[in-house]
Design brief:
The protein is α/β, with parallel strands linked by helices and 393 residues long. It is 36% helix and 16% strand. It has 2 domains: 2-142 and 246-391, Periplasmic binding protein-like II (D-Maltodextrin-Binding Protein, domain 2), CATH 3.40.190.10; 145-241, 3-Layer(aba) Sandwich (D-Maltodextrin-Binding Protein, domain 2). It contains 15 helices and 13 strands. Strands 2-1-3-10-4 form a 5-stranded mixed beta sheet, sandwiched between helices. Strands 7-6-8-5-9 form a 5-stranded mixed beta sheet. Helix 7 (175-185) links the parallel strand 6 (166-169) and strand 7. Helix 12 (282-292) packs across helix 13.
Length: 393
């Protein structure tokens, strides 16, 4: 189908990554964790000045993988390069696109990458099965995952509307893990779903073609991509139906925390400055991102970032109290309760799956956020002007 051609081309850009990461995944081994969490309070400053390391970095060349192809919400990392925020920290950062959160998690555990952005509930499942990763920042305070269907085929108004439908998912992505939490939160038996199909990337192509009835993917990525192709969507965002989970976060492994703590702090400081800049100058941030992924439609990138803002994925009551990227043991444990059926057999030590120790102190949400107008914000509206604080018109 002609409307799928751009998606198919996007897959080829990641073919080489798939091969390399696949080799590393086989070689990956689990190890212990070294750090427990110690709170570091946020301040009220909104300064764009970087926090610099007091001593030369032990590791200045840093590798970082995204969970998937670069999207609008990934702009902060590219801004941190273009605005010199990483450089000010003494870092030379290279960013790779990924092929799913599960793959990114295992790649950073194996040491192929120093850092990864990935879905934190998926990381929790991996940790429970011995994979050596630690969350050092919860970028998405709320998951952007949702059940996504074509409105012309299925009008989803309640979770029970999924009964009897065929679910499509990719086993390497974040959707299957979060969907289990969604089913648990809404007392839905998985057996009520008519069937499920392990599908490939891009997942939205399968729902657009009618191969499956719905997919479980992101309101600020796959849902935007479907709307961009001219299809109206019907959504059940998981956060609106009882699922209190983090979305994407930044992960590293125990060796980085033990051997290169200064590098971890520097990377987070540079990336956080990138996010603050993106909140204040969203269209400039999209320009930076598009300069690095020029084959991507800039309108699509803009709508993806607008959707992340509209659904308030980056903020929560915890960020109001403690600043951006803050993590709590209570929320991690709540995630674990939703995911009991898919966690490993060894009890999870929630003091070791994450740490706030390496976060920079200047993490308060800016008092002067910018706005961005999205042509299509799925499930909310068209030509919508959005602030990082949420919908404005």
């Amino acid at each position: 189908m002609s409307h799928l051609s751009s998606n198919i081309k996007a897959i080829s850009r990641t073919a080489a990554i798939v091969l390399v990461v696949a080799i590393v995944v086989i070689a990956g081994a689990a190890a212990g964790f070294y750090y427990s969490m110690t709170p570091s309070p946020a301040t009220s400053t909104t300064s764009m000045t970087s926090e610099s390391s007091m001593a030369p970095l032990s590791k200045s060349s840093v590798t970082f993988t995204l969970p998937w192809l670069a999207a609008g919400y990934n702009a902060p990392f590219y801004v941190a390069i273009d605005q010199g925020f990483f450089k000010a920290q003494g870092l030379d950062v290279s960013i790779s696109e990924g092929t799913g959160s599960g793959v990114a998690i295992r790649a950073v555990a194996a040491g192929t990458f120093d850092f990864a952005e990935a879905d934190l509930p998926t990381a929790l499942v991996a940790i429970s099965k011995g994979v050596d990763v630690v969350s050092v920042a919860a970028v998405d305070q709320n998951t952007g995952l949702s059940a996504i269907a074509l409105q012309s085929m299925h009008k989803l108004t309640t979770p029970s509307d999924l009964s009897g439908l065929t679910w499509g998912y990719h086993p390497g992505g974040a959707g299957p893990t979060a969907f289990q939490a969604f089913l648990t939160a809404n007392n839905i038996q998985g057996s009520s779903i008519k069937g499920n199909t392990s599908i490939g990337y891009p997942e939205e192509a399968f729902v657009m073609s009618g191969s499956v009835d719905f997919i479980t993917e992101f309101v600020d990525y796959e849902a935007v991509n479907v709307v961009d192709k001219g299809y109206a969507v019907s959504l059940l965002p998981f956060t609106q139906y009882g699922v209190s989970e983090y979305g994407f976060g930044i992960l590293t492994n125990s060796a980085m925390l033990k051997d290169h703590p200064d590098t971890v702090k520097a990377f987070l400081a540079g990336a956080l400055q990138g996010e603050l800049y993106t909140i204040q100058h969203p269209m400039d941030a999209i320009t930076s991102l598009n300069n690095h992924v020029s084959s991507t439609n800039v309108t699509l990138l803009r709508d993806q970032l607008a959707s992340a803002f509209a659904y308030k994925l980056w903020t929560s009551s915890d960020t109001d109290a403690n600043g951006l990227w803050w993590q709590t043991s209570a929320k991690w444990q709540a995630m674990g309760q939703y995911l009991t059926g898919v966690l490993g057999s060894t009890p999870v030590d929630y003091t070791k799956v994450f740490t706030n120790d390496f976060l920079p102190s200047n993490r308060a949400f800016p008092t002067n956020p910018g706005t961005i107008t999205g042509a299509n914000v799925p499930g909310i509206g068209f030509n919508l002007t959005v602030s990082a604080t949420g919908k404005t018109s």
